[in-house]
Amino acid sequence: MTGDGLPRWVDLALIPLVNLLVALLLAGVVVLLVGENPWEALKALVWGAFGSWDQIGYTLFYTTSLVFTGLAVAVAFHCGLFNIGGEGQALIGGLGVALVCLTLGDLPWPLLLPLAILGAMLFGGFWAFVPGYLQAERGSHTVITTIMFNFLAAILLNYLLVEVLIEPGQQVPQTARFPDAGHLPYAHEVLRALGVRTGPSPLNVTFLVALLAAGLVWLFLWRSRWGYELRSTGANEQAARYGGISPGRSIMLAMALSGALAGLLAINEVMGSQHRLMLGFSAGFGFTGIAVALMGRNHPVGVILAALLFGALYQGGSELAFEIPTFTSDMVVVIQGLVILFCGALENIFRRPIVAFFRQRTRETPQEAAA
Amino acid sequence: MSTTASEAAPAGTSTGRAAAMAVELVGVDKSFGPVHANRQVDMAIEAGTIHGIVGENGAGKSTLMKILYGFYQADSGEIRVKGAPVRIRDPRDAIAAGIGMVHQHFMLVDTFTVLENLILGAEDQFWVRRSLDQARDELIAIERDYGLEVPPDALVAELPVGLQQRVEILKILFRGAETIILDEPTAVLTPQETDELFKILRRLKAEGKTVVLITHKLQEIMAVTDAVTVMRDGAVVGRVDTAKTSREQLAEMMVGRKVLLRVEKTPAKPGAPVLSVEGLTVTDEAHQPKVLDLSLEVRAGEILGIAGVSGNGQTELIEALVGLRGFTDGEVKLKGQSILSGYQSSDPRELRHLGLGHVPEDRLRMGVVVGFDASETAILGYHDDPAYNGRLLSDRAKVVAHCEELMQAFDVRPADPLLRTGSFSGGNQQKLVLAREIQRDPALLLVGQPTRGVDIGAIEFIHRRLIEMRDAGKAILLVSAELEEILALADRIVVMHEGRIVGEMPTAEADRRKIGLLMAGITEDAA
User: What CATH number is given to the structural domain containing B93?
Assistant: First the structure.
């Protein structure tokens, strides 16, 4: 993607790193303004995210969720679509997971997991396919429809949990707990079995599913003819039509796949951690996925790295709020916002000086050689 | 057809080098990253002359003029206007220095009147009405002085292209420009409109203005300029007086080697009809007819050229024939077999399998995906061919090997299948597209603007390949806005005007004037 002749590592590593540092610097100013020591705050943040096995577990747990929603945004993006509906698709995906787990929950987890994945992908995929269909056939823009579908999903889930799926005899709008047999193994359980003693964290086997999903997304986009059709449509719709590719079909496929990926978030949260379907379990990760995809440049590897960063911010941030009482959780959101601002929206502000710097260097080198 | 020096205007160069210079560029240098667009360019443009700048695409003409007009800043070098150094940081500075520019794509607001467009950016009164009233008197004076008649209150959108161009020139004169730069001004004009434009340019010269004409059409240089600067690879390779040069010499300077300007070919031996179109009617998105009851036939072993000013239905015709656009009436047969008939939706993919190749007229819009690497662009339209696919995943090794083959056959440079398509020059992108379509050996090839934005060296190559294909007994339908190209390549010519065929003739009996009149919609009995 580099048209300005930069070395690849500058484009992929240096520029994001500079952006991140500036964001943290500015966050430090915010910390100063509330009268705290920025260095201590940074230490608390990093320690909170990576200080112990269970803290790393939490960080990776959030990372898992963000990989799914980040991939969802990335797949849609490669077809020229902006899927803002990850949140709603994840909620509906949760419905699919819950239905599978409630009806077939007695199966051992290795059998149940593929079925639950299927349920999450079908439900989440359907929730995104409809906006895709509306854009392909009716010209309704997905940006608008997917936002509206977020509300529809929340209301639908609310209704179902209050009126239909609620655990009989209970007041809280949530389903009954899934049977134990179908719970996914936690990382700390596995580690203990191997002799490593750690505190509990919700990190579970879904983490591996997320890595696998990233690999499959890469294969699909860059190594399959359907991925080719999808990318053609996104890069140049006229050229796609010229090549006999139906843009409408690509759009519907991309949206369905995007929604299916977003739906997988529910495997991590619902099946892997909470073991029941409850309101608002997606916790805004559907939206954070947009920032993750943006920062990860819509490439699966980038998405994994960006998800790790945001997962660490999320986990470290909550520890930070705990460590420094004057530092409320709202402050943590401010820091996250700054990171999104510099790594996402303002991604290119330092590009020009950096490009100029490297151009200068490449120009000087031959002269030095001559001298 | 224009021949070399016979048409050249008697150039007013007798005054010699001592004449006052309108604009001088001294040692102008400009790089974009690794691309060295202008190398130490020295250029002097005498006041009161028409000065041509020629060069292949990428030779640095446009960059140089954009520096002069303030869109870019030179890395080093100096610009002098009437002998005095000036700093031009943006177009405003350029206008203040008396330099104006007519862009290839007009910078007009379609929904404004001529007068409103004229004052755009120069409305010095608080009330627009007052600026307009003031401008009206000035406009009438300018129109009278230069013979540039345009109705001041007409909406720009309703004016023909030739008049829109006049509005652009008026705009520049209105701002008091002494030097007028025109970037490829004839690309959108009929031959008659071109002649009109040249008359205007001569009039401007007679009134003491300086005109800089950027073009790649050598016959225009010969017809209207006094002196020519030739550029190659970002540097000036020479400056000659038009009266003392020839098209052949200019072409050689541009390319750096001898070039064949005329395509050598034997008479066609047409065989059985390959494509027959009957009563085709195509409407656009607004249900306006773009192609009307059109019939034509292309035979094996011949090239049928469609001449016409852009926008007279050629695009819609080709898009309908390749299945990209539905049509309301008519029938299309390929080798006697009906492939398309009215209302029937069609799939470009299927038509390809039936032996129909298509080189789209707008390469960047349709022919390539700039973000894809070359090997991916090289399978566009054939990406589902089992040859490039395994059961689930595509076979990258085969795709890359296929691209290497195409690059070798069509001399695409650099021959790197993994390079981003957008990093190739226009000519090499076009060669890649032609390679993709021709190497499949289709029975019928539809070619739109095969050499648009392509260097002279590559044009020669592309023309030769098309003739070879014809000689191998294939049918070719050629659409080109370059009349010279149609005359050089086609065996038979039809002229399109407003969606209809208004004339047909063997190329041997065709001449520029006759076709030009037909292109303007003037049939012989009327003329």
Answer: 3.40.50.300
Question: What is the distance between the alpha carbons of residues A74 and A303, in angstroms, rounded to a whole number?
Answer: 8
* Residue B114 forms part of a structural domain: yes
Cβ contact (<8 Å) for B367 and A239?
A: yes
Q: List, in sequence order, every beta strand (DSSP E) within B138-201.
A: 179-183
| Size of the A and B interface in Cβ pairs below 8 Å | 71
Residue B204 and residue B353 in one domain: no
Phi and psi dihedrals of B80, rounded to 5? -120, 135
Domain residues for B318? 273-364+443-519
Please check whether residues B336 and B232 belong to one and the same domain.
no
Query: Which chain A residues are Cβ-neighbours of B349 within 8 angstroms?
Result: 243-244
A236 in contact with chain B, both atoms CB, cutoff 8 A: yes
The three state secondary structure string of B53-113 is EEECCCCCHHHHHHHHCCCCCCCEEEEEECCEEECCCCHHHHHHCCEEEECCCCCCCCCCE
For residue B153, give every residue at least 6 positions away whose Cβ sits within 8 Å of its Cβ, in sequence order, or none: B113, B114, B115
Q: By CA distance, what is B422's nearest residue in A?
A: A3
Asked whether the beta carbons of B273 and B299 are under 8 A apart, the reply is yes
In a domain, B399, yes or no: no
Cβ-defined contact of A235 to B324 (cutoff 8 Å): no
d(CA B389, CA B378) in angstroms, rounded, equals: 14
- Residues in chain A with CB shorter than 8 Å from the CB of B324 are 241-242
CA nearest to A148, candidates A87, A90, A71, A65: A87
Of A236, A238, A244, the CB nearest to B347: A244
Measured between alpha carbons, how far is A263 from A189 in angstroms, rounded to an integer? 26
Which of A5, A231, A239 is opposite residue B366, by nearest beta carbon?
Answer: A239
Nearest to B384 among A1, A225, A242 (CB): A225
Task: Please tell me which residue of chain A has the smallest CA distance to B392.
Answer: A224
Residue B239 lies in a domain: yes
HSE toward the beta carbon, residue B268, CA cutoff 13 A: 26
Our count of domains for chain B comes to 2
ipTM beyond cut 0.95 = no
Q: Is the C-alpha dihedral spanning A162, A168, A170, A176 positive or negative?
A: negative
Q: Cβ separation of A242 and B380 shorter than 8 Å?
A: yes
pLDDT tens, chain A, 371 aa long: 334 556 777 777 788 788 888 988 998 898 888 888 889 888 999 999 999 988 999 999 999 999 999 999 999 999 999 999 999 999 999 999 999 999 998 899 999 999 999 999 999 999 999 999 999 999 999 999 999 999 999 999 999 999 999 998 888 899 999 998 888 999 999 988 888 888 899 999 999 999 999 999 999 999 999 999 999 999 999 999 999 999 999 999 999 999 999 999 999 999 999 999 999 898 889 999 998 998 888 999 999 999 999 999 999 988 888 888 888 878 888 888 888 888 777 777 787 788 777 766 655 544 433 33
CA distance A307 to A292: 6
Find chain A residues with C-beta within 8 A of B350's C-beta: 244
| Alpha-carbon dihedral sign for residues A324, A330, A331, A333 | positive
Phi, psi of A239 (to 5 degrees): -65, -35
* Coil vs helix vs strand at B389: strand
Angle between helix A53-78 and A285-295 (nearest 10): 70
For A197-216, give one letter per residue: b (16+ CB within 10 A) or e: ebeebbbbbbbebbeebbee
Instruction: Report DSSP state, residue A82.
Output: -
CB distance A235–B372 less than 8 Å?
Answer: yes
Model-level pTM? 0.79
- Return d(Cα B411, Cα B431) in angstroms, integer: 8
Q: Which of B33, B322, B358 sits opposite A4 (nearest CB)?
A: B33
Minimal Cβ distance to B393: which of A219, A235, A238: A219
Angle between helices A206-223 and A247-263 (to 10 degrees): 170
